[in-house]
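Private note to self, pasted from the team thread so I don't lose it. Backbone tokens:
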């Protein structure tokens, strides 16, 4: 659900006194701030127990998200290998004899296409949030920067659980293939 909708509904429920916000920090390495929308008529002890448990689970998620991300990249790299791609690299930042870099950017998967004379760059999104147009364009710019700096024919692709319809339309217009998850 888009955050604008959640914010709007929350504001309406709070104005009617049906909901209140409860903030806490996730027990994680980064101590991320969390805000929960709570039913004003619910038992406070029950709300506190639920918030503590959800905060604990979110803390574990934040602490493990890097490992989950790397696992997703390894899965995509493995699929590329099975499809016949070669010269596969994960989290590529530099290329060439002079190690020309991408300025704090990286390409999740870099691989030589098995049947054509180009390299595929693959952005792997591991979160359950939809990929938006700005994220797609940032990845496209990263690919264009790498192609220019490394003097290679590079073509972007995206692997993600979800995208917005506008992202799908823009990707089609930019000729960027997207592989989406079928799991919900």
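Design output:
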């Amino acid at each position: 659900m888009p955050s604008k909708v959640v914010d709007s509904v929350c504001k309406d429920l709070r104005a009617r006194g049906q909901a209140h916000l409860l903030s806490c920090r996730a027990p994680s390495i980064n101590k991320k701030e969390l805000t929960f929308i709570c039913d004003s008529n619910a038992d406070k002890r029950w709300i506190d127990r639920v918030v503590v448990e959800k905060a604990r689970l979110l803390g574990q998620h934040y602490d493990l998200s890097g490992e989950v991300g790397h696992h997703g990249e390894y899965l995509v790299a493995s699929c590329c290998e099975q499809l016949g791609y070669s010269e596969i690299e994960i989290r590529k930042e530099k290329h060439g004899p002079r190690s020309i870099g991408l300025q704090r950017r990286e390409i999740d998967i870099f691989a030589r296409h098995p049947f054509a004379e180009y390299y595929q760059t693959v952005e792997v999104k591991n979160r359950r949030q939809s990929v938006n147009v700005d994220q797609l364009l940032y990845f496209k710019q990263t690919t264009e920067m790498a192609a220019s700096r490394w003097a290679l024919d590079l073509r972007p692709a995206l692997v993600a659980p979800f995208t917005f319809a506008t992202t799908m339309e823009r990707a089609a217009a930019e000729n960027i293939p997207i592989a989406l998850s079928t799991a919900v």
